[in-house]
Amino acid sequence: GREWAHKTHQKALTWLRRDVFPYIGGKRLDDIQAPDVLALLRRVEAAGDLFKVRRLHGYVRRVFSHAISHGDATRNPAADLNMRDLFPPARPKHRPAFTTRADAGRLMRLIREYPQPVTRGALMMLAWTLSRPGEVRMMRWADIDRERAQWRYTVSKTKTPHAVPLPRQAMALLDELEPLTGHTPLVFHGERPGRPLSDNTLNQALRTMGIDTKTQHCAHGFRAMGRTLLAELGYKPEAIERQLCHKQPNDVVAAYARETLLGERMEMMQAWADTLDAWADGAEIVPLRQRG
Question: For residue 121, how far is the Cα from the chain centroid?
Answer without folding.
Answer: 21
